[in-house]
Each structure stands twice: as structure tokens, then as C-alpha cells.
Specification:
12% of the residues lie in helices and 56% in strands. It is mainly β. It folds into two domains: 94 residues, Pnp Oxidase, Chain A; 91 residues, predicted glycosyltransferase like domains (Thrombin, subunit H). The strands form three sheets. The chain has an eight-stranded antiparallel beta sheet with strand order 8-9-3-2-1-6-7-10. A hairpin with a 2-residue loop joins strand 4 and strand 5.
């Protein structure tokens, strides 16, 4: 796959590798500038356009439901015909790339899930392992059934995200005397995508501040 084979509107994921963790931000291709560079819609979180100069970045293009990877690309903010874009400079051909359907953000926080039983509504505290735009994983000692519907409420600034999902996978964790459950959300929630992007930016900024602070000691 070459960038000349990518049609306008191609879904683009920018993968950031930093401090041992991976982060993903979504965009789409706007224009082919030349054989080594494209313009993509600017990646904006909380009304701020992101900069990528401090990070190792990869580009993943989704074409005909297949993913293609370019590693170590360069990303700069540019103005083109009066508008702001991210310009991505990449070399060579993209390699076929096998990855999970959606980026999963590590959470590692206790949250409450809600579900119905024969005796009425029930709520329990679980350890939310990770979350993506398509599903969530959590750990609990409670033995829940596959195909059970659950609700998860996440506070995003001043808004509560009310998410409904179905348990599709269950794994016993003997060392924790617990179960790991994988759930799939019933519908797409645009606000959830913004929440995941914002959490990624917060983590990146926190790690940058820690590195900057340590370098001054």
C-alpha cells in the first residue's frame, strides 16, 4: 500500500508510543500533497490542537477494512488554503497490520456497574481494566453470566456517560479469585470517544511533566 493508493476520506489513526504505553488518535485523510506526505484533519481534544513533536508516532490507514502501518512518521501543524491541518510525512509502503478492532485505554479504577436480577436491580463495585469505543473489560469476584446486560456510568467532566453493554466473554483468574469479563457496548457513543481521547492527553501530559521534573533534579 502506498499513500497514492489512499482515497480522500481514508480513516487515519495516529499511534503514539511514549513511556512504554501506546495511545491512539483518530482523523481522516484530506489531501495527498506528494508521494511522501498527506494532510489529515487536525486532531483536536478539548478545543486544543495536539502537537506530536515530542513523541514517536506511527500512522495506520484503514482501506477496504484492512489496516496498513507506516512507522516513525513526522507530523507537523500547517496552514493550507486558510485552514489548519496536520501534515504527515511518511516514506515507503505501508505494511499490512493486524490489530484489535478498537484501541483500548487502560483505566485501572473502581467503578459501579448495574444489572437486573430476579429480585430486582443490583449494583456492584468492579475494577474497570480498560475501555474502548466498542466495549469495556472489568474484574470482579462476582460470577456473572455471559449474555447478561450491564450498565456502566462514567463521569466525564460535568456529564455522566450512561453506557449499556452485554457480557460476551468470561475468564476465571485463579490468582485473584476473581473473573475478568469482556463486554460489548450496544451502540456507539460519540461522547465516549471524546472521553477516551481526553484521558489519553491527560496521561501524556502527566508523563511529560514527570520527565521534565526529573530532568531538573
Amino acid at each position: 500500500m502506498t499513500i497514492e493508493d489512499m482515497p480522500i476520506g481514508t480513516k487515519i489513526d495516529i499511534e503514539v508510543r511514549f513511556s512504554g504505553r501506546n495511545f491512539t488518535f483518530n482523523s481522516e485523510m484530506v489531501l495527498l500533497l506528494d508521494k511522501n506526505s498527506i494532510l489529515i484533519n487536525p486532531i483536536v481534544v478539548n478545543d486544543k490542537t495536539l502537537g506530536f513533536n515530542d513523541f514517536i508516532t506511527n500512522l495506520v490507514a484503514i482501506v477496504n477494512n484492512k489496516a496498513f502501518l507506516w512507522e516513525n512518521v513526522k507530523i507537523n501543524l500547517v496552514r493550507y488554503e486558510g485552514a489548519i491541518y496536520h501534515k504527515v510525512t511518511l516514506e515507503g509502503e505501508g505494511k499490512s497490520y493486524n490489530r484489535r478492532e478498537a484501541f483500548r485505554l487502560y483505566i485501572g479504577e473502581n467503578m459501579t456497574i448495574y444489572y437486573n436480577t430476579a429480585s430486582g436491580p443490583t449494583q456492584i463495585s468492579v475494577l474497570v481494566k480498560d475501555i474502548s469505543e466498542s466495549g469495556v473489560g472489568f474484574i470482579t469476584k462476582e460470577e456473572l453470566d455471559v449474555n447478561r446486560m450491564i450498565r456502566l456510568k462514567i463521569k466525564d467532566q460535568n456529564v455522566i456517560l450512561d453506557l449499556t453493554a452485554v457480557i460476551i466473554r468470561k475468564e476465571h483468574l485463579p490468582h485473584l479469585n476473581s473473573f475478568l469479563f469482556g463486554c460489548k457496548f450496544n451502540e456507539k457513543n460519540n461522547r465516549l470517544g471524546k472521553y477516551i481521547a481526553r484521558r489519553q492527553v491527560e496521561i501524556l501530559r502527566s508523563k511529560l511533566r514527570t520527565i521534565s521534573s526529573n530532568s531538573k533534579k
